[in-house]
Amino acid sequence: MKKLLLIPYALWMLIFVVFPLLLMAAYSFIDLSGNITLNNYASFFSSNYIQMTLSSFWYAFLITLFTLIVSYPLALALNATKRKTIWLLIIILPTWINLLLKTYAFIGIFGKNGILNDIFAVFNIDEIQLLFSDTAFIIVSVYIFLPFMLLPLFNAISGIDNNLLNAAKDLGATRVQVFSKIILPLTADGIKAGIQVVFIPSLSLFMITRLITGNKVITLGTAIEQQFLTNENWGMGSTIGIFLVIFMLLIMVITSGKSDNRVMKL
Amino acid sequence: MTTIKLENVAYTYGDTQVLKHINYTFEDNKFYTILGPSGCGKTTILKLIGGFIEPNSGEVRFDDKVMNKIPANQRKVNTVFQDYALFPHLNVLENIIFGLKIKKTSKKEMDKKLDEVLRLTNLEEFKNRNIGDLSGGQRQRVAIARAVINEPDILLLDEPLSALDYNLRVDMQYELKEMQKRLGIIFIFVTHDQEEALGLSDEIIVMDRGNIVQTGSPKDIYDEPLNRYVADFIGESNIVRGTMVKDRVVSIYGRSYDCIDGGIMPNTSVDVMIRPEDIYFGEHNKDKLNVTVDSVLFKGVHYEICCLDEDGYEWVMHSTKNALLGSKISLNFAKEDIHIMIPGEDEENFIERLESFQGEDE
Question: Of A169, B86, B189, B254, which has the maximum CB count within 10 A?
Fold first, then answer.
C-alpha cells in the first residue's frame, strides 16, 4: 500500500526531473549539426564563458549579500513588533504578484522620466540614469528575493527563547555580545537557508537582466536563454545548464553541512 | 556586601498591577524563599533584582546604591532560570565559562574557577557533552554552575527544581542549601512548593496577588501563620471559625477550649487553626471532642484521618495509628497547638500582639 502511494511522486520525479536532466545531459554532447561532440564543453572553458560565469557568481554574491544585509535587521525588527504575523504578511504579499509585473514597475520608477527622478527634481537633485545600470539590477533583485531570505531568518529569530537573551545579559553580555554570541550563532541555520534560496536562483536570473539592465549584465541564465532562443544552439545551452546544475549542487553541499545543534563554536 | 532593599516597589504590566507596594530587605548570607501561587508576582521580584525590568515606582537598592537604572549585565547578580536557559549551541563547558569569557578572565584563573565549580556541581565527567544530551538534573547543575562561577553577591533561583522528579528534587534541595552555606551569599529562591520553602530557607516571604503577606523563619510561618491564606498555603490545617472568650480561652462551635493566645478583645471572631499532626485521638468520650471517623487515607508515613464531630464539622488529623472507618473516637489537642488568627490583621499588628502577649506570659 505504501509503495502504491509512492507511484505518483516517483512518476513525477521521473518525468519532470530525471528525464529532463538526462535529456539536458544528452543534448550537451550534440553540436549544431547534430553530431556527437565535446566542443560545447571546450567552449564553456573559453575565456568568454568563464568570464560570464564569474560575473554571474559576482552578481549572485552581491544580490545575496545585500538581501541578507537588508533582511536580517528587518527580521529582528519584525520579531520585536507586537503583530509579527501581520507585518510579515505585508512584506511577503508582493511575492504573490507576477515577477514580470514587479520588474516593469521598477522600469517606471527608475526610468529617465520615472518617479525617482521626479522626486529628485523636487529637491533639485540632478537627474540620474538608474535604469540600465547594474545598480538597478541589484536593487530590483534584492527586492524580489527579500521575502525568500526574510522568512527563514524570521523563523530562526522568532524561535530563540527570550530567556536565552536574558541569561546572556545576566552573565554580563552587552547588547552587541548578546547578538554576536547568542543570536547570530542560533540563527546560522536560517542564514544558510536564506543564502541557498537566494544565491542559487540569482545565478540563473535572466528576464530582469534584459528588462532592467538592457542586457548589460549577462548571467548564465541570460546565456542559456540566448543559446536556446536566439542562437538555437540547444547543445551549448544544455552545456551551460549542466554547469549551472553542478554549481547549484556544490552550493547546496557547502551551505548545508552538518548541523547537529552545534552551529558555531565560540 | 550586600543587602538588597526594596522600597515601595510597584510594577505594572499592561493593565495588571503585578506588584503593589513591596517593602523588604534581604540580608547578606541568607537563604530566602519567595513563596506564592503562580501569578502572585514572585518571579517579578526576581526580575527586578536581576535587572531585567525596572519598577514603575519605588527603589531597588543594593546596599545604599539605587539600582533601578542599572542593566542586568552590570549587576553582581546571577540567575538560574526556570527552564535553565542553557545556550543550545554551546557545550557544558562553554556554557559554564560564558560569563568569564565575557569578562575576559585570564586562562589560568578561568581554569581554577572552572575546576572548583565543576567539583561543586559534580559535572566533571559531563563537561564536553552537548546540552541536548543532558538529563534534567544535569542541566540544572549546569545552570547553577554557569551562575555561581561568576561569584555573584546574589544568586536568584526561579523555580529551578520544578522540572525534576521527586527524588532528584530532594537531593538538589540539600545541595542548594549546602552550596549557599559554602558560598556565603544571598540566595533568593522562588517556588510555589511549600515543602521546598520550609526545608531550604532561612527566611520565607509569602506572597499573594502582588503583596507580601507574611515573612519570617520557616518555623514562625508554619507555627504562627498570619491568616487563613498563609495557613492554607503552608502545610495542611484545620481552620475553623471561633470566638475569643477571654485571654487564653477560645470558643469553637459553642465549646470553650484553653489556648495560649491573648491580647484580643473578648467576643472578637477569630480563625482557629490546628495542624492535623497536632491532633491525636483516643477512646470515645475520653478526650476533648467526640467524632466519628469518616474516611481514612494511607499516606505512607501517616494516615490522613477525616472525622466528623457531633455537630457535623470536619476535622482532619494525621496519625501513625490507624482508626477504624465509622468508629467513634474522641480527639485531643494541646492548648499550645491552638493557633488564633484575626481575619484582616496585618503583619505588623500580628507580631506586636504576639510579642506583647507572650512577653506577659513569661
Answer: B189
Domain B4-223, CATH class in plain words: alpha beta
Residue A222 inside a domain? The answer is no
For B81, the closest of A163, A261, A262 (CB atoms) is A163
Cβ contact, residue pair A170, B83, below 8 Å? no
- The CATH number that domain B280-332 falls under is 2.40.50.140
Does residue B163 sit at the A interface (CB-CB below 8 Å)? no
Residues of chain B contacting residue A170, judged by C-beta atoms under 8 Å apart: 50, 52, 72-73, 77-79, 147
B104: left (phi over 0), alpha (psi -120 to 50) or beta: left
Q: How many CB pairs under 8 A join A and B?
A: 76
Whether residues B102 and A182 touch (CB distance < 8 A) is answered with no
The reply to whether B101 touches chain A by the CB within 8 Å rule is: yes
Residues comprising chain A, all counted: 266
Per-domain residue ranges of chain B = 4-223, 239-273+335-362, 280-332
A104 inside domain: yes
Sign of the C-alpha dihedral computed for residues B74, B96, B113 and B50 taken in this order: positive
Instruction: B218-226: list long-range contacts, CB under 8 Å, 24+ apart.
Output: B222/B198, B223/B339, B224/B339, B224/B354, B225/B273, B225/B339, B225/B341, B226/B341, B226/B345, B226/B346, B226/B347, B226/B350
What is the least distance, in Å, from the CA of B96 to any CA of chain A?
Answer: 10
| Measured distance CA(B22)–CA(B48) in Å, rounded | 11
Flag if B103 and A172 touch (Cβ within 8 Å).
yes
Chain A CB contacts of B99 below 8 Å: 171-172
What does the alpha-carbon distance between residue A93 and residue A105 come to, in Å, rounded to a whole number?
Answer: 16
Q: Which residues in A have their CB inside 8 Å of a CB on B?
A: 161, 163-164, 166-174, 177, 181-182, 185-186, 260-266
Domain count, chain A: 1
Mutate to test the interface with B, among A163, A164, A171, A258 (most CBs of B within 10 A): A171
Domain carrying residue A197:
59-217
Which residues from A are below 8 Å from B86, CB to CB?
A: 167
Q: pTM of this prediction?
A: 0.81
Q: Which residues of A touch B77 (CB under 8 A)?
A: 170
What ipTM is given for this predicted complex? 0.80
Q: What is the pLDDT along chain B (362 residues), one digit of tens a residue?
A: 689 999 999 999 888 889 998 999 999 999 999 999 888 999 999 999 999 999 999 999 999 899 999 999 999 999 999 889 999 999 999 999 999 999 999 999 999 999 988 988 888 899 899 999 998 889 988 999 999 999 899 999 998 888 778 888 888 888 889 889 988 999 999 998 888 888 889 999 999 999 999 999 999 899 889 988 898 888 888 988 888 888 888 888 888 888 888 888 888 889 999 999 999 888 888 888 889 999 999 988 899 999 998 888 889 999 998 888 888 999 999 888 888 888 888 888 888 888 877 655 44
> Domain for residue A227, yes or no?
no
Task: Tell me how far apart the alpha carbons of residues B160 and B143 are, in angstroms, rounded to a whole number.
Answer: 9
A172, part of any domain:
yes
| Domain at A185, CATH number | 1.10.3720.10
CB B51, CB B4: distance < 8 Å: no
